Amino acid sequence: MTVPFFDLQAQYRTIQDAVEASVLDVLRSQSFILGPRVAAFEAACAEACDVPHAVGVSSGTDALLLALTALGVGPGDEVVTTPFTFFATVGAIARVGARPVFADIEPESFQLDPEAFQAAVTPRTRAVVPVHLFGRCAPMDRILAIAGAHGIAVVEDAAQAIGSTYQGRRAGSMGDVGCFSFFPTKNLGGAGDGGLVTCRDAALHDRLLLLRNHGARPKYHHVQVGGNFRLDAIQAAVLHVKLGHLERWTESRRRHAAGYRERLADLEASGAVMLPREDPNGRHVFNQFTLRVPGRRDALRAHLAARDIGTEIYYPEPLHVQPCFRDLGYRSGDLPCAEDACAQVLSLPIFPELTPPQIDAVVREIRAFFG
User: Fold this and answer.
1) SS3 annotation, 228-289
2) What is the pLDDT of residue 366?
3) Residue 315: is the preceding peptide bond cis (ω within 30°)?
4) Are residues 234 and 158 in the same domain?
5) Is residue 63 domain-shared with residue 200, that is, in the same domain?
């Protein structure tokens, strides 16, 4: 049986009529840039994320860039973050002219280690970017306490975590700003690139709106150098339809994850794999279901690929040793927990439309590999 790593067409078939009607409405209106469609989607997202303000933007990458710019982060500043994340997290820090400072991760959760964050703080630290990786929130109570003690801004990278919670609070509502991605394979994915910035502060919201549209107010009068970070109305139309299905899709992901955990528990007990864990303080939304496979990750992936089962490695190389960050002075061995994770992680299919026979096939072949 073929089991794709992700199947966008399976999801689209369930919502095709509503999405196409919504997009057609935009086409007929010929109103493509911002406007009522984007405003309505922003209001719905603000409610879903339990924040007063949400700003639709052109991508998750631009959400991070816009957030850091609005907070005034720039040359001479340091920003602490994790090396075990997608490149955009750190690329945005570098693009505003700040220096990325890497802190290691917690081995079990893959999240930024608060103690490592604390140790990385210097007088130049202006912000911290915890990443709610794979759909599980970072340990925000400790991160917020450290940041608050040092006057450090907190930018939540919630690109993979819309709908997740920590101690009853929604991802994107805990820090100064939250940044989301609507890349097509995210839990809430668009028909192309898109993103969102959330915040609670009205003045910060105003700066985000200004910077999103070239810093112009009124039109053609530029009070600050911003960018073109606008969310397209067509993307807002697609995403608004899909937002109404997000909770159902999230519960499907969580059921699939529970099934994997139950049926692979004995392999974890034997030490063959380590399964992702639920945080008792929060709700995991499983953008990815990521195993650790010590020593045999690549062999297991090849075994599954030979049987038409898709997998992915998020992420094969930590960011502190990427060539473009060589001048920061990090070396292999500096952040061992992140480096070990990159050598061991393997993500299994977890999309909402995954069928019971497909899950059976994945489990069966993993068990066959380990004998």
Assistant:
1) ECECEHHHHHHHHHHHCCHHHHHHHHHHHHHHHHHHHHHHHHHCCCECCCCCCCEECCCCCE
2) 98
3) yes
4) yes
5) yes
Same domain, 176 and 207: yes
Is 86 found in the same domain as 213? Answer: yes
What residue numbers bound the domain in which 138 lies?
8-103+111-243
Tens of pLDDT, residues 207-262: 999 999 999 999 999 999 999 999 999 999 999 999 999 999 999 999 999 999 99
Parts of the chain with a pLDDT under 70: none
Select from 210, 186, 188 the least CA-distant residue to 49. 188
Tell me if residue 75 falls in helix, strand or coil: coil
Number of structural domains (the chain) is 2
Kindly report the CATH number assigned to the domain that includes residue 275: 3.90.1150.10
Domain co-membership, 324 together with 202: no
At 59 the three-state DSSP class reads coil
Q: Letter for the amino acid at 70?
A: A
Give the angle 252-253-258 at the CA atoms, nearest 5°. Answer: 95
**Which pLDDT does position 354 carry in this prediction?**
98
